[in-house]
Specification:
Blueprint (H helix, E strand, L loop, with lengths): L7 E4 L3 H14 L3 E4 L15 E4 L6 E4 L4 E5 L4 H9 L3 E2 L10 H7 L6 H4 L6 E7 L5 E5 L4 H7 L8 E8 L1 E2 L2 E10 L3 H12 L6 E9 L14 E9 L3 H11 L6 E9 H6 L10 E9 L4 H9 L10 E6 L2 H4 L15 E9 L5 H15 L20 H5 L3 H11 L23
Parallel strand pairs: 1-3, 2-3
Antiparallel strand pairs: 4-5, 5-9, 6-10, 7-8, 7-9, 11-13, 11-14, 12-13, 12-16, 15-17, 16-17
Helix pairs in contact: 6-9
The structure holds flavin-adenine dinucleotide.
Amino acid sequence: MVARKPGLIARCADAADIQNIVRSASHAGIVTAVRCGGHSLAGFSTCEDGLVIDLSRMRQVKVDENARRAKFEGGCLLSSVDQATQRAGLVFPAGVVSHTGAAGLVLGGGTGWLTRKFGLSIDNVVGYKLVVADGSIVQANEKENPDLFWALRGGGGNFGVVTEFEVKLHPLRSVLIARGIWSDDQMLPAMKRWRDFVCGAPDNLRWDMSLRLAPAIEEVPAHLHGKPVASSVAIWLGDEAEGRTLMKHIFGFGNPEAVSSEVTSYLALQTMADQNFPHGRRYYTKSGYFSSLNDDSIEKLVGSLASIPAGRTQVEMSYLGGAAERVGAGETAFGDRSAPFVLNLLGDWADRARDEEHIQWIRALFASLRPAMKPGVYVNFMSGDEKDRTTEAYSARWQRLVAVKTQYDPTNFFRLNQNIPPNSASGGSQG
Ligand SMILES: Cc1cc2nc3c(=O)[nH]c(=O)nc-3n(C[C@H](O)[C@H](O)[C@H](O)COP(=O)(O)OP(=O)(O)OC[C@H]3O[C@@H](n4cnc5c(N)ncnc54)[C@H](O)[C@@H]3O)c2cc1C
């Protein structure tokens, strides 16, 4: 959906290359995009006629097994990090699709299967090395440039090109994963039970719900293909026997179909959704938070399936909380952590002629749910037409972010992102 043709793509091999290109482009005033995995839903990793700093040659990962630390370069995909850390039986908590760029994901916050147990990705970053707008290299960690360190934990690509992340790792090789599908008049009670259960669940459990038309795949019984369903995935990180008992309880409600549970390797978990989000399809999202999910909102969510456009569009509901929620609101630049229910309306279709149909369906559903939601949004789940929500995303943290941006990027050179304009901004507005 983002078809733009940059004038120049700089495939940087190291920090020195990035310094050179940043100095030249900022001196010449060229619109510049930074690209890691290219997954930006808003299309920020490319631009029309300008420059793209492409980091795909910078995918080195160094793991220090004893210290449980890793350093990875700014062009890494999640798969680069997962593969290297798993060789030592360690994990860095990040997202759920392995071809997502680690840099873009981590800079915005980073949520995934391990968030409840180990926190957001940014809660596990101990240091950044970056090239800032004047071309110099800056370190940001608890001791050096602590304000920048704070801003980089959630503030996106606003402050420079991160060439290296230093992160904490945790031991984990496998998880217990269970699935099941509720349909027809069981969807509503299943959603309500999910809502009630997750609030008191242990950090070792992450249980997500997805409302959608069931895909015509082998794992789904044929009589459900194309029908509205509440499809569910739960993962457990602790003792297997304890997890199996819990999964029995979760999927023992009503008569879910296609129920399965198995122990799977961490790498299999991290790649299992890869083929569901291939490059080249059409995607559109709207996202937000609920402090609590009332019956009326659940009824709207389930009721929306009656008009959902055919395709792979879905309503994703997850519950974060856990370790992510225990980090104080002011400790990082990331937006709201206090509203644990995350709604992600994810449009996914193939035919350009159906753009309006999918986008309008998502917008209308979002508007109807909005009054019950808590203001706030995860910047990495924002679409390109939502620039007005950036202040909403950062709310109380906005002025401090503007101050850091003004110090490190006074001309708003890095502006193809969920932009935080500096006080002195005179830059353009392409995006
Ligand atoms: C299929 C799919 C699955 C997703 N799953 C998850 C998930 O599980 N959890 C989650 O939290 N999010 C998820 N997201 C959202 C994802 O976090 C954002 O789209 C993120 O921006 C992707 O990062 P990227 O590096 O791939 O994107 P890019 O488009 O390359 O970059 C995104 C933004 O980051 C900036 N940027 C990239 N690299 C750098 C760098 N080295 N230094 C400075 N700025 C940089 C870019 O300029 C741009 O503004 C998913 C998105 C998609 C499309």
